[in-house]
Amino acid sequence: MNPRIIDWSLIAYLSLGWGSSFLLVTLTLGSIPPLTLVTIRVIIGAIVLLGIMRIQGLSFPEDKRWWGYFTLLALIGNLMPFTLISWGQTQVSSSLAGILMALMPITTMLLAHFLVSGERMTLHRVVGFVLGFLGVVVLVGGEALSGLGGTTIIAQMAILLATSCYAINSIYAKRLPRINVVVAGAGTLLMGSIMVLPIALLLDRPWELDVTLQAALAVTALGVFSTGLATWVFFLIIARRGPGFLAIINYIIPVIAFAAGVLLLNEPAGLNKIIALIMILSGIAIAQGIRRTPVRTQ
User: Fold this and answer.
1) Is residue 283 in a domain?
2) Is the residue at 295 inside a domain?
3) For 183, how many CA atoms within 13 A lie in the half-sphere containing its CB?
4) Contact assessment for residue 25 and residue 37, using Cβ atoms and an 8 Å cutoff
5) What is the pTM of this model?
6) Contacts 24+ apart (CB under 8 A), 291-294
7) Rounded Cα gap, residues 244 and 83, in angstroms
8) What would the 3-class secondary structure string for the chain be?
9) Is residue 296 situated within a structural domain?
10) 25: closest CA among 256, 214, 196?
């Protein structure tokens, strides 16, 4: 079954939420160190989803094993990638980071082939994902690849590790027993908050920080839109469509950034950008337009 309008709407929100996080992180790093930044956004996100749980009259599952699941989801899907990307962005250009992040769909496809029912690595999916990745390289600018290696190699590896965390987390979430997606998101962010808060208090001493109004507003937006609500949408997409569909988000985010630049900032849309856009959209269409085996929904 091909994705429906609601599925593309969810992907669009998650693309905007996660895509804008790179800018928001940049606005905060001047006055908030990476570890404290992760702590604040996870805590705010947890508060948002706990509030939604209360409004909907939901509760956490009685099975204690779920707290172990939540802990792993928080570690692999939030704490590790958030910290790695925040730190990596202090040394790596946003263009190179975008290319490195675009490797996530390919990593997800390889892992899902072996671990998720209905996510077979067919020829059209391979072609679609590779075409989409090459489109991202063209869109961002091939000159960004000149930054590979060199003195920032560790930061680059950190971002690559973050993409692997996202890929593994999406597959792990798909293989878990069924649960309400709001509860899954709230439990994950709650455990993430509990794990990271003591470390941030010990290492960063956040009460001594001089936080600007800009940074405070940015981290609040990160917590509400790019963490809390985005985590809810993440679990909803995984339940409806699976990790393979979710993975294309790393191709859609550069497209949104390109469109915003053209429409809002009057940036030129050169021929190479148009070609890149066609490559990315064609790659997504090839990878998602043909489904031999429907993805099991929850």
Assistant:
1) yes
2) no
3) 14
4) yes
5) 0.81
6) 291/1, 291/2, 292/120, 292/122, 293/118, 293/120, 294/1, 294/118
7) 24
8) CCCCHHHHHHHHHHHHHHHHHHHHHHHHCCCCCHHHHHHHHHHHHHHHHHHHHHHHCCCCCCCCHHHHHHHHHHHHHHHHHHHHHHHHCCCCCHHHHHHHHCCHHHHHHHHHHHHCCCCCCCHHHHHHHHHHHHHHHHHHCHHHHHHCCHHHHHHHHHHHHHHHHHHHHHHHHHHCCCCCHHHHHHHHHHHHHHHHHHHHHHHHCHHHCCCCHHHHHHHHHHHHHHHHHHHHHHHHHHHHCCHHHHHCHHHHHHHHHHHHHHHHCCCCCCHHHHHHHHHHHHHHHHHHHCCCCCCCCC
9) no
10) 214
Are 85 and 163 within 8 A, CB to CB?
no
Assigned token pair, 236: 């909803």
What is the tens place of the pLDDT at every residue in 210-237? Answer: 999 999 999 999 999 999 999 999 999 9
- Phi, then psi, of 293 in degrees rounded to 5: -125, 120
* Residue 136 in tokens: 């991202």
Q: Report pLDDT digits (tens) over 131-177.
A: 888 888 887 676 656 666 677 789 889 988 988 898 899 999 998 99
Distance CA 10, CA 87 (A): 28
Count up the domains in the chain and report the number: 1
Q: Are 17 and 226 in contact (CB under 8 A)?
A: yes
Boundaries of domain holding 53: 5-289
